[in-house]
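for the record, two folds in this file. i put them one after another cuz i was lazy. first one right below, seq on top, structure tokens after. the second one comes after a little note so u can tell where it starts
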Amino acid sequence: MTIGDVKSAQGLGELNKYLAERSYVSGYTPSQADVQVFDEVGKAPSTSLPHVLRWYNQIASYTPAERKAWAAGVSPLTAGGKTTAPAAAKPAAKDDDDDDVDLFGSGDEEEDAEAARIREERLKAYADKKSKKPALIAKSSIILDVKPWDDETDMKEMEKQVRTIEMDGLLWGASKLVPVGYGINKLQIMCVIEDDKVSVDLLTEKIQEFEDFVQSVDIAAFNKI
């Protein structure tokens, strides 16, 4: 599926349909295709585009350095499925010596001790450089249903109290009120967590501590990033 200009309402609508059954633009892990579309979208969309909003908040939760380390992917914004990887004909920068260094030497003459030493130094430098690339951090995107006691509960104050919860690895996202009947609305709020830092059980317990406002908390959606 090829998507039009995502800066237009039609293009964003097509992207929302495209992401309805996908976590990422290309494949099962984030890639440069996500970065390309993320940059094109430019800002968080409205809650009327829930799939784009979920995806946008997920990508925004990563740092620029983490996004830069992602592999290439196939972008739906490009006709014919052209990948987002750099063109092969583009000359490499002088300081990017991954492909320029002859790690194993050249020539037909017998390798002497000096050549062997230089090769080992280059191999070590290459390995050190590769080891410094940032590793992907396991994250999850969660949508929580926070239910009030009755129709007299101040929902704005409830949301304000929920957002006061701060934890290392927790990022609050968009929210909306969803009718549940008899004039009662529930607060549906999105967040992104780092799995190693934030416990979902602890987060829901903290929300339920606002007992003047909150009757219960349920997980409406849970997606690994």
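(here's the note) second protein begins now
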Amino acid sequence: MKFLPVAVTALMVSVLLSCSSQSHAKKNADPTLTKNSSAINPVLTGADQLTAYLPLLKGKKVGLMGNQTSVVGPKNEHLVDVLLREKIDLRFGFAPEHGFRGDIERGEKVSNDKDSKTGLPLYTLYGKNDKQDSIIQSIDVMIFDLQDVGARFYTYIASMHRVMELCAKHNKELIVLDRPNPCGDQIDGPVRKDDKFKSNVSLHKIAMIHGLTVGELAHMINGEKWLEQGRQCKVTVIPVQNWDHNKMYELPVVPSPSLPNHLSVRLYGALCLFEGTDISVGRGTDWPFQIVGYDNPVYGDFQFTPGEKAGMVKHVEGKGQTMYGLDLRSLDANKQVFTLKYVLDFYNKMPDKSKFFARPEFFDKLAGTDELRKQIIAGKTETEIKASWKAELDEYRQMRKKYLLYTDFE
């Protein structure tokens, strides 16, 4: 088995990444660049640092949780192709929501299949799969490499939790190839505390906009003993180099069909709550999560008509209807932070407010609480609503500090 000629011995499996292992990873980092990099201080994702993790895979049977965001280097080569070229014994891939190549609609069934390019057997962790235990028992080490976008309701972090559950249950190693959080410069929204609202879109007791990378969250899940029966997973995180929570990061690959660019990613946290309503966030257009509207001119002068786009066919609000509302495409993406102003604006403009929360139970799951919906109905302002989150957010911030791998924005 051929590897790059760098000896890496310090990054062995541990529950919490030590400072010495972080410095060792920096020392042996590959000089590959991402679109967010400069020649002086290149941003290196975990996947970019081949010399840090290939030796950990040598002689082992390996599984991968990945998708189209699992890329390596400036050419965005898929991690699967890299691992196979390096003669890693890759046995299967687990696919999250949207599938292994990222072309499946939100909420649609992800079936067991084969990767169209490599023939790698694929299995799903999205939904129920009775074969998951036997699948994980067939390998020695699991890799997790998915690009999160920093919102609690983005289901890739739920997929990581399921991988950790399986690895902990069957005593398997897990290597998390960390990636920057494109919204990692903020913490906001209610903290999900009551298990009544626990779901695939609100699995963890974290803030709605959580301010963590997946590597940091993996350590939090372990440290807070959120896995079943208080188990802990054997986790090694390969940390990002030359990035911290103060730095903007534009994703090199679209993370899912409805988040096609940096602006959509930055607006996603504020606009996703509309999915508990019938308000359109632009699915079925070229600008999902950059425009908002409903079928009444009272909502604004901007007009658009949702249709059918790749990855957005079945679940399109207002398909074929003229929508009236807001055009957010000219906003500076880097300046966007979580806000309730869009949801409050549309609620206040709706003639029959009893129809606004078309799917109240799902809205509450997105929010992680039913208090937000009740506060909106009661006519609370954004300032009043956010003030009600302060105590729980302060408590969350203190917990979060224990698991940070990077310089914080606060």
